[in-house]
């Protein structure tokens, strides 16, 4: 058992020390060390293109408050009636 663990550990350390970088890995590292290019300077920011649009309509909250009803019952018991009941009108 100890020999198997030792082999796995040696193989793991070997793979870590001999990792091979591919072109994709090098490009990935360059992404963190990149400098602003001329292309990014010429692009217009998205925030500059977005206009503020109001989606608010007339205030009808009073109208809806008059017709809103909330009736809820959590559990009905045949011997004692409702355990919890709420009526909001």
- Catalogue the unreliable spans: none
Order of helix and strand elements from N to C terminus: HHHHHEE
Q: CA-to-CA gap between the ends?
A: 73 Å
- How many DSSP E strands? 2
Radius of gyration: 34 Å
Helix tally equals: 5
The profile of the biggest β sheet is: 2 strands, antiparallel
Helix percent band: 40-55%
Q: What portion of the residues fall into strands of 2 or more residues? A: 15-25%
> What is the averaged pLDDT score?
62
Task: Kindly describe this structure.
This protein is an alpha+beta fold and 89 residues long. The chain has helices at 2-17, 23-32, 38-42, 46-49, 61-67; strands at residues 70-77, 81-88. The longest helix is centred in the N-terminal third of the chain and has 16 residues, at 2-17. The radius of gyration is 34 Å and the shape is elongated.
